[in-house]
Amino acid sequence: MTKGIEDKVVLITGGSTGIGAETARLLAERGAKVAIAARRKDRLDEVVADITAIGGTARSYALDVTDKSAVQSVVAAIIADFGRLDVLINNTGLMPIRPMAEVNTNEWDQMIDVNLKGTLYGIAAVLPGFLEQGSGHIINLSSVAGIKVFAPGGTVYSGTKFAVSAISEGLRHEVGEKVRVTSIEPGAVESDLKFTTSGAAAETVLDFYKQAIPAASVARAIAFAVEQPDDVDVNAIVIRPTAQQF
User: Fold this and answer.
1) Of 92, 165, 166, 225, which is least surrounded by CB within 10 A?
2) Candidate list 61, 121, 157, 209, residue with the active-site label
3) What global pTM score does this model have?
4) Taking every pair of C-alpha atoms in the chain, what is the biggest distance, in angstroms?
5) CB of 104 within 8 A of CB of 98?
6) β-strand pairing of 180-186 with 9-13
7) Closest Cα to residue 168, out of 158, 156, 182, 179?
């Protein structure tokens, strides 16, 4: 158990693999009650089984973060199941890398819907309740590509992640007296994200990710932000492989 994490109810989107799954395991180990949500319910249930096997508390919820009403319904279900919600971790994301000259507007739409709108829908679903209870913590997964444009190939992805970082900082300005806001900005991390690129760039992305750090490294950074006292708000954490220059 870890003071500052123990008994907090935490919702993690994209909780079936990678950063989301490792964060769920770590926070549950430290005493949090974890709700994990993603589209693949079977993968979520595997993570829940891992957590319950070590005596932790976790439940899974099928969720497509691009469906605004579904996000609201899952948040309501979590509050009904656990009695409250203390932390939202907006983790779901896509990263198809492709030159803009290919004009793949379908991928652009997907990134905007998942990376940006999905984050906003999560915020919209929890913020009124957090403000009413006078406490809460919103943690948004941005990227080092939200600090420096990842081009060529990652221009639109960077655009969505710059937006996530900007929204995090603006939200902190607006509600920071009651709700803590953290932007987590990872570099190359071992996860399924690297597999969301197809076509000619796929091999380049996989090669880039050979330097990736374990998802558990980011989970520890998230836990650090969560465990701080109520009067401490960790606004941003940049974490990447020591070998990564970008």
Assistant:
1) 166
2) 157
3) 0.95
4) 51
5) yes
6) unpaired
7) 182
